[in-house]
Amino acid sequence: IILNFNHMNNIKYLYAFLVIFMFSCEEVIELDLNDGQQRLVIDAGINWEKGTDGKNQEIKLTLSSPYYQNETLPASGANVQIINSNNDIFNFNEINNTGLYTTSTFNPVLNESYTLEIEYKGQIYSGSETLIPASEIDRVEQTNDTGFTGEDIEIKAFLKDLDTPGVENYYLFEEYFIRKDEYIYGVGDDQFVDGSNNQVFSVNFYNSDTLRTGDKLRLKNLGCSKRYYQFMFLLLSQTADGAGGPFSTTPATVRGNIVNKSDEDNYPFGFFRLSETDTVEYTVTEDGGSQEYNE
Hints:
mainly beta, 8% helix
């Protein structure tokens, strides 16, 4: 089973508690928070969709910002490249000082090892990973009478476990609600469904007032390593809707697999991941049912 989390900020629960407890106070108070060290934020997810050549890839570099600042600052002027085990170099070029770096020459090979190298303001950042294969999505099932009220809509996507018994596999699942421009992520493993004849499934629930007949969902399965699975599990657990409530322990910094080789204390945020992916688009129907793929 792939655990799905709505990616929302828990601060709303603290705010709701304060409104209830201090109903007579309407003044908005901003706490004087100390700004942490500005760090490089690396969004380096390489996705190779089945049936494509995978040559066009992008990496996004930004800078962390103070809590009350909504603006995302691009990390412009970096040198970005990925190197494979044969020492082939794939250079990423920045687009118009946006912090978005792209290439059209990447060569994806399943189970190949790659190293990301970034030089930014005299600091060298590096991380290594393997390009992990992904299972195809077999079918999507919709049920319209689930949840506590019996009125929620359940969307469940099925895929076969990737390998033979005894081989650990890990899964990242992305569900994109097109009309609302919202993403939901989940992670899972094959601990209880090990073996290529067994099925893994991702499940997510929607309120019937939120998901309408005719809505389209883009469902993506991404292969991922054990380390990335652990990284995402911790990250999603801390940012999940309602995780811990207003009195939970302060979330810890979730460190990725990229290090600063010039100054280990000035570590970046983010992760270097390489995934084969399989994507299907599902249209919500009035009566539910099952939609088959990859027959």
